[in-house]
Design brief:
Length: 262
Amino acid sequence: MKPGPPSSVRPVPILAFHKVDDRFEVGVTRIGRLRFSRIVSELRGWGYAAVSLADCADPARLPEKPVVLTFDDSYESVHRNAFPVLAAAGFKATVFVVTDYIGRENAWDVNLGWIRFEHLDWPRLRELRDAGWEIGSHTARHPDLTRVPASRVDAELTDSKRALEDGLNAPVRFLSFPFGRYNDRVLDAMQRAGYARGVGFWLRKPADKTLVFERKAYYLFDGNLSLRSKLTGSPLGFLENVKLRVINFFSHGTALVKPSSD
């Protein structure tokens, strides 16, 4: 039997993906279809079972080795390329939706390769919902919530939550902070809007863990060694965190060029 990572410990490891697409772009958030298939195969071979963020609220009911798979930005390629692979493996996932761009191209993003990618439309979102996927909010227009007025933060969170709940007839409990960035004002607005928790790429301080799930993003150049580290918190975890912060710093260029994502 092929050796894998040791049994996971709480907190449940959470992986973050973006595009699963073979089309070239200047950026690192895309991974190809074959690589994604191999990731899912490795997870199954290592004994992992995919669960939802909501499942994490009751640790007693979790499988022995749980993992949460999340997709930010709700790209159409998630349905076309990731969904069939996950369904075949018996896995479910969570997708975070930029609601003002449902069924539209990603004009909110700064694109260095002049290639636009389509977002999921309502029929595909409903198909994912019916397949047991968890649907969360990634705000209405994907601004850096730490850089816009408080009134804008409230509108981004309440409008997106309402749109998803009305369009899917399902509760929306979780929020993915654009660029992984949040502060106390954002957390207060999140609670006012009725979300259970947010998800980011790291915690600002230990006390945030009651309101924020910490995730590990998987990028174009990551391989199995990185995957193991993201899952198990191995000694390489420090290097993973450094890499994540560097990538996040450069990704913040979108927020600087388009601070309101208008």
